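Hi everyone, sorry if this is the wrong subforum. Our group has a chain we'd like a structural model of before ordering constructs, and none of us has done structure prediction before. Sequence below.
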Amino acid sequence: CGFLLVALVFPRMVGLRVDFGLLLEPLGFIKVLEWIFSIFAFATCGGFQGETTLLVSCKGVVNETVTAGFAYPFRLNTVVFSAPDPKRCGGTWTDVYLVGNFSSSAQFFVTLAVLVFLYCIAALVVYVGYKHVYQQNSKFPLTDLAITVITAFLWLVSTLAWAKALADIKMSTGASIIPGIESCKAPGTTCRFASVTSMGTLNVSVVFGLLNMVLWGANVWFVYKDTNLHNQSNRIS
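Answer:
Right subforum, don't worry. Here is the predicted structure as tokens:
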């Protein structure tokens, strides 16, 4: 990390030699893909906004629309439906909240994507401007390898956790919420599920999480080839 900081602030001190050739090789090309896919991962998840809509009929109200807006980081238990009317159905309508807090899984996924985005920028700076330093100092490839292995594992864990959370979010914002709303059980009150915002972009975020996991997993081999571990195994064989 200290080397990267010095390289970015004082490039001449560490011998900057710009060479984009490594970007055409698997090691550099995959890193570019990892950088791009990390952007899509946190953008499709972190930028989502949606709402659930019900139609409520009660005293003095017929098919009135009530909505509950939700967004990243999906603390649904803090989201309340709007009231059907100012009189709150003659006093029978109490605050209705969505159920569930899925912020930990969502924030884990987005935070990892942001950190990966930043690391890819730093790694590409080294690949393009300091390839000779990277290849001459065995510590840098080994550090890169360790980070690559850990990141591939974290993509697996975060994506599985986020996929499970997304399935629960769909349940907590869909038609199945009606039976659990006490205000809808009041005499003379009926509630019908109207709609919920499409979560296609969130589905895409899971796909990008899986793609990131595959990319980082595949990149382990190409990073490993630049380490002295690979060179030692070749000499032994």
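For your construct planning: The longest strand covers residues 61-71. The radius of gyration is 25 Å.
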